[in-house]
Give the backbone structure.
Amino acid sequence: MTKELEFAQKLIDFVYDSPTAFHAVSAVKNILTSCGFTEVKEEEKWNLEKGGKYFVTKNDSAIAAFVVGKGNVEENGFKIVGAHTDSPTFRIKPAPEMTSEGTYVRLNTEVYGGPILNTWLDRPLAVAGRVTLKSHSILHPETRLVDINRPILIIPNLAIHMNRNVNQGVELNKQKDTLPLMAHVNESLEKGNYLLNTVAEELKVEASQIIDFDLFLYEFEKGSIIGLNNEFISCGRLDDLAMVHAGIEALINVEATEGTNVMVAFDNEEVGSSTKQGGDSQFLSNILERIAISQGKGREDFLRALARSFMISADLAHAVHPNVGEKHDPINRPLLNKGPVIKISANQSYTTDSNSDAVYEEICKKAGVPVQKFVNRSDERGGSTIGPISSTHLDIRSVDMGTPIIAMHSVRELAGVLDHTYVTKSFEEFYRL
Ligand SMILES: [Zn+2]
């Protein structure tokens, strides 16, 4: 097996360990802890050492890891890679069980973000997330992660005989057509509490201990390497766990430099970022300021540090689809396995400008990595990223880039094996600057 293939398989394993944003943070914490990083808490005093490796979490679903620079922060600034932990999915509503025909038990769900709904049909689905339990303190309930890693749900399609136009495209109603089937009504189980009891069993607690939950659906089947010559990665949640994985791998692989290296993964990008753990918050800005403060620096030193900083806003990019090439710009046409993609937009939905573009292009050149460019076809709107949102909180130069993929927001997205290595190499080169 080639090194690139091995690394792509590592990404698939990471995504499998990260069925939700909460689990992604937990998986990242495990990697960091095994590499000598120490957890610091927002509510405690920080005594950071030069060259020290630390991480801090927010809401169990966002994380920032950093290696404190050996130089003065106001002279060397921060080198930041930013990504996001969340992906489009379905969230389970309170008291979710609904019966139909007196025999089927379905779960009431709400769509999270913008999934391609029809890709979720006829697939074995599992449930994971965070559960909040009673504790001795009302203000501080206990939280636990749960992963019911069994194919307990499915959203069945309607037969083509009752839906003759299905291949001309069919609208799915989010309250009616996408509710997953879980079980038959079963007299031996407690009605209305099938799911809750299963969660309680999984956590080995009494169901009455559970006050609330943040539970989501995910595709049960693990991602895989595909293609005649193992060229491709077929896997869910590559957006944006591929960038989280690349960023963390780069951070742990590079020794402390003069500047401070930071990898941040926000939650809630898929729903607009405006939460305390999202990109549109003070989470990152406060951490950077505290890194400066803990070294005895003042506000001016912190602002000087920002002026010397650079951020790579890393979120996946669209590669040209082999069957629908006309959706792309006629000239700038990113392809799978041809390297990271710089994203550019006249209306600034990406942060890239010629200055930040030049910085990232030179980084790629130094790393020996090919680089591509993406601009929207002028009559297509395109997506958004954490870059412009984060820039409104942090006054620093920034480039938007990402690994090229096809089928973004499908339950299984498609990436190139080589690109994961290319992108990670570019981040390592950035952190070495
Ligand atoms: Zn994304």
